[in-house]
């Protein structure tokens, strides 16, 4: 797992994500979710590839229910791309690294 992928929760979501000066890709996930585990290596690679340009963070929906509810997370993995505190793009379900990279490139 990349050290560049940060785990955030209800308490630090606003400062880490909404107040970030760079785009932030948020992965809403859970430990029991197979597809969430499938995309984790791609997120680790993207965190390295986009280091300094995009933050990649994970929010465990089991432990951070208020953030998950606020963003209407009903199925996981659900990825939200934030820029200037606003959701710019949404991806639900497991997708490949190339598709996620396209999503990040549009935000830059």
Automatic annotation (TrEMBL):
Active site: residue positions = 33 (nucleophile), 36 (nucleophile)
Write down any Gene Ontology CC term. Answer: cytosol
KW Zinc-finger (keyword) present: no
Q: Which domain of life is it from?
A: Bacteria
- Keywords linked to the UniProt accession: Disulfide bond, Electron transport, Redox-active center, Transport
Instruction: Kindly state a single biological-process term from the GO annotations of this entry.
Output: cell redox homeostasis
Cysteine disulfide links: 33-36
Thioredoxin domain mapped to chain residues = 1-108
Q: Where is this site: Contributes to redox potential value?
A: 34-35
Site note Deprotonates C-terminal active site Cys, residues: 27
Q: Which GO terms describe its molecular function?
A: protein-disulfide reductase activity
Pfam families hit by this protein: Thioredoxin
Q: Which PANTHER family match?
A: GEO12009P1 (PTHR45663)
Q: Which family does it belong to?
A: Belongs to the thioredoxin family.
- Name of this chain's protein: Thioredoxin
Report the source organism.
Cognatilysobacter bugurensis
What taxonomic ancestry is recorded?
Bacteria, Pseudomonadati, Pseudomonadota, Gammaproteobacteria, Lysobacterales
